[in-house]
Amino acid sequence: MSKAAVDEVRLERLIPAPPEQLFALWVDPVQLAKWWAPDGHEMEVVTLEASPGGRWRNILRGADGGGMAVSGVFRVVDPPRRLAFSWAWEDERGEPGHETEVTVTFEPAPGGARPAVLHHRFATPAGRARHDRGWAASLDRLARLAGG
Amino acid sequence: MPGAELDGVFAALADPTRRAIVERLLDAGELSVGDVAARFAISTPAISWHLQVLERAGLIERRVERQWRFVRVRQDALVAVEDWVSRSRRHWSGALDRLEALAAAQTPDRRKS
User: What pTM did the predictor assign?
Assistant: First the structure.
């Protein structure tokens, strides 16, 4: 069995291009739109403020015309080595759903770079704290029910 | 949307100790509560609390045999987690493929040299 945690995705790739180039392809909206969307989808980069605290938002459109928006906030923008951002799919009303976290590192490697993506559900203390509060509220309700 | 239920599952997994418990149960199949406690350097009440949270989230189930209590992972609970993991993996794998292709297209001489 793999040692990866059950609730995270780790991917690594050796790409024959320098970290600087890959980093630039990630934080330039025109370039990002060229590679981010799965085949058969078009993507509009609505917002891309590549600085810590900056927002990002992409809209994906499939062949059937249906759109899905995904958005988040940049946590770390450290060219050309490291990017970290939150990630949440939006519902029909544009409300962000469950927030997950992505960290990308661009390590130099012989002949290019070794970009590594880590996508997991709970990276930030803030996100964890929110969920802990959620649990605390549930426990309070449970305690009231039990005591009532 | 499977939202609320999945959120509960992931909230339960957010805690590193609970995630470790689930991973050990996945390896072992089934363990007695005492065996789970013996593998972690925290108090039995704390383990008991973590097991309650995991059970409430639908991630584990208990079985009682005489005076022994056993716990194991509910396979159906992990379907949603595995689904998220496989979708995310597919997204990033495809994205890195396209990123590589775009980088190569920008520097056509790089591979030849």
Answer: 0.73
Assess contact for A7 and B81: CB atoms under 8 A.
Answer: yes
- Sole residue written with tokens 């309070």: A140
Q: Is the CB of residue B33 less than 8 Å from the CB of residue B48?
A: yes
Cβ within 8 Å, pair A25-B110: no
pLDDT in tens, B56-66: 999 999 999 99
User: Does B96 contact A15 at a Cβ distance shorter than 8 Å?
Assistant: yes
Query: Which of B13, B27, B81 is closest, CB to CB, to A1?
Result: B27
Specify the CATH superfamily of domain A8-147: START domain (3.30.530.20)
Candidates B21, B85, B97: best to mutate against A (most CBs of A within 10 A) is: B85
Cβ atoms of A50 and A32 within 8 Å: the answer is: no
**Predicted confidence (pLDDT) per residue in B11-20, tens digit:** 888 888 898 8
Of B101, B26, B32, which is closest to residue A34 (Cα–Cα)?
B101
Compute the distance between CA of residue A36 and CA of residue A45 in angstroms, rounded to an integer: 10
Mean pLDDT, residues B16-36 taken together: 90
Question: Nearest chain B Cα to A8, which residue?
Answer: B85
B28 min Cα distance to partner chain A (Å): 11
ipTM for the assembly: 0.75
Radius of gyration of chain A (CA): 18
Q: DSSP letter string over B60-75?
A: EEEEEETTEEEEEE-H
Smallest Cβ–Cβ distance between A17 and the set B53, B81, B103 belongs to B103
Q: Any chain A CB within 8 A of the CB of B70? A: no
